[in-house]
Fold these 2 entries.
Entry 1:
Amino acid sequence: MATYSTNEFRGGLKVMLDGDPCVIVENEFVKPGKGQAFSRVKLRNLMTNRVWERTFKSGETLEAADVLDLDMEYVYSDGEFWHFMKTDGSYEQFAADERAVGDAAKWLKEQDVYSVTLYNGSPLNVTPPAFVDLEVVDTDPGVKGDTAQGGSKPATLSTGAVVNVPLFIEIGEVVRVDTRKNEYVSRVRNG
Amino acid sequence: MSWKPGATPAMLRARAQLLRALRDFFDARGVLEVQTPVLGRHTVTEPAIESLPVTIDGLQAWLQTSPEYFMKRLLAAGSGSIYQIGPVFRAAEQGRRHNPEFTLLEWYRVGFDLEALMVEVADLVQEVMESPRPHVAEYRELMQAHAGVDPWRDDPAQLAERASAVSGIPREQLNRGEALDLLMSGCVEPALADQGPVIVQHYPPDQCALAAVSEVGGVAVARRFELYLDGIEIGNAYEELLDATEQCRRFEADNARRREAGQPIPEPDGRLLEALEAGLPQCSGMAIGVDRLLMHRTGAASLDEVMAFSLERL
């Protein structure tokens, strides 16, 4: 397995630390004029999502983590696992458990494409696109003509996610949502 | 990667103004501007500083990490007080506050002891940086207050234990020097961040390659101080070592440490030793990172913003 030296550390690099795959968030080179060089590194543990801060002596190495981000199509859920399929024409499928899917579950729409992080060949994490278009399946009746006024109401989307939408949105309309902030962005023309 | 410089036109003007203000400061004090080679046959032996090697027609040469050796040869030849502003190079130093090539202001004051130089540094901070005069802090007291160690009393194992707790590096991997560096950058520097200009003085002798040593409060201390602006290291000053034999001994001690660590072994600079034997006048010298001064003056977050072209734009 490849290793990375401190001078190769940069944001996004996936490495093993204390037996867990981590992604480097930030690397700061620290060196007093007359002293030793160190790297002060922030890493996010991909298993727990917790952020660690560690200092390394310059020249130290970390093993690369066998972690791969792939675009995959969401196929279906069997109640226990969420099944994804590679988009490279191989039809190869991967089953992600609840821990891997996490909060992404509420944005999963069949046949849409998501970023799946594989660790040692199994799904570790599922990331939805920043913006998804989903149909409103339940909300209070719309207020006619009220397209400019403030105010909002909760709406349940086809995937089960609940977001606040403007009062004029009706059941059956498609809305664009920012998945990172869980926020309504705009109305998408039907069809 | 874009072809564009890191520094904006306004930043280029701020740099030119700073350089002019520094030159005005020294010219008004009768300190002579000099230029010495950036490329030298010899380089420093300090284990913590790596030089970039260059080969000229099969001859081993080095990009200078500071103009110190050449400037000391000028001093020994009777130049009087001198200053220089120019590029220096240090291998494998890159980050928000490090770039392998940077601009160093270095000056030597003949007849000045460290206290006299400290007054001049305070003048420079006040006049050029338009900041309040630095307050002077003791290295030992800062370490005791913020890192919970006494570098003169605690043994290397105790220092390593504390540095390990702060950094997460296993203590058996830390020697005394590394432990002190980690505690300084991890505990003391953050505590200086909201204190404006601070001069830290009275370092342990093993933390300084070229400084004279004296006794203060019953312990040996190096004749050295550092200038910090808002917790960022800006420059280092020494009351210079005059003794050629002691200098030679330190070169050899440095190279013994380098050999142990598997680092390159630069041959000691025989011409510097000859100059010291001929007689270096009693003097004190300071080196200041000009790019970091500019960062401080403009509130820039990284060297890339204050340099025309940092390493990543070359």
Note: The longest strand of chain B covers residues 219-229.
Entry 2:
Amino acid sequence: MAGPLSLTERPTGPKTDDVALSRRRVRPWRVVAGTVLAVVAVLLVHFLVTNPRLEWDVVGEYLFDPSVLSGLGTTVWLAVAATVIGSVLGALLAAAQMSQFPPVRWAATLYIGVFRGIPPLVQLIFWFNLAYLVPRISLGIPFGPEFASWDANEVITPVTAAVIGLSLVESAYLAEIIRGGLLGVEQGQRDAARAMGFTPGQTFFRVVLPQAMRVIIPPGGSQFISVLKGTALVSVIAMADLLHSVQVVYNRTYEIVPMLIVACLWYLAVVTLFTIGQRWLERHFSRGHTTGGLTRRPKKTSHGVSV
Amino acid sequence: MTGEPALRVRGIRKNFGDHVALDGVDLDVADGEVVTVIGPSGSGKSTLIRCVHQLETIDSGAIYLDDELLGHERHRGALRPLGTRRVAAQRSRMSMVFQQFHLIPHFTVLRNITEAPVRVHGRPRQEAEAEARELLERVGLADRADHYPRQLSGGQQQRVAIARAVAARPRVMLFDEPTSALDPELVDEVLAVMRQLAAEGMTMVVVTHEIAFAREVADRCVFMEAGRIVESGRPDDMFTNPRTTRLRSFLARHRDSLATPQEHVS
């Protein structure tokens, strides 16, 4: 019977093909690339295993040396401190850049321009030598009475110079990242929050920021990794970070290569660890942003109804 | 529908740069009244209710909710703008339903509805959740409480948005083209919920392109063009017997949707 054409009906007519029965296609460039990669890998392993100058026994000996571990600790807390302080300052700067009051915007733009524009190494040395420019640091009313004052030479140690220098650089970069994240939240979300009677603070912290975090976390994580490696700069102002601690050893023993390998292994280990943490954060802040089966696990309510 | 109006709009003007969005608008909305606002795109309908909800500031005129001036206070004999917290408190007495729903994506459906009652109105969470579940029941989404907004269809999201707006126990509900972003087959489920609210005596101002709905549900209809109210009155009079040529030509353009006013009654 010649009824209307149905999609579920098996088509009749000449014999049809079935692509499921096709063979795999040979892809010659993949064979070439695979071979090259394999050869490079073998060469690399061969080099790492057979080159005596790598002195793996020395690497093993110093990998968990207390001075190295203490340097690693310094590197990590310095990076964390710079990121935390930089995030707070950066958030304020981002807010300032979006201010309705132009002078505040100009000031923020100038700040970001200066601290992003000067190499961090130069800034660190500058802060370390602050005592020359400002011999005494005092707290008081500008041009008025002074409540307390300190000798800048005592205040500006390698630690404070490093924290200040790295935090200021970080704040400038993070300000741009945070601003980008905040601009990425659609205006309608702010409207909805305000329409619900939220105060500006509630609107920002409950509605806007959690959504901005989705956009902020990936570049923010890269920024953290970048400052973690950037802490190596503080070795020039004699702060005992990871690089400085291995330098102290090889200046004594001349085992330069194995000690640098010790530092490399630790940098890689920490960066890998934080990358994993970053993935977890990304997942956390993307909740509700997928249309898939990502529902919250069923929750027992006070009525005993499981929804 | 007697006594003092719930909402009074007096001679408000609003410019966006050189563009005059509102050019002196007066509007009274009585307690329990449903006012629908129609008019061509860019006529200032949405701007009007966004100004009422203080999402936009007005350049002149005044808006009163239950005789309280919105957005300004008297200070040393002159008016000055209110602080942001006071404005937020005034906003919390009205609700708005947006064209694009604007549910908060990282909150579940339930949390979207309970957030304002708990955070703004200080109600106990348990009580707010119980009420939210009742509201979800009423809009037919009881089984969606723990979903995230993105997992719902547009019509479902808009029904959640209406439940969210009702949960705040508003004095006046404002609707900004609530069905314009929906697929045609999803419009009716949203209109049905709004019809139900109107029948329950909610005071509503509805900006809409659904001409048939505007006629059917309204106690009073307002036609706007170029930032002014051109004509207003009882919908049946206005639609069968438009006094102005501008309304007549506007209705002519929408004749198709008016020809079958029963079409949307589900």
Note: The first strand of chain A starts at residue 136 and ends at 140.
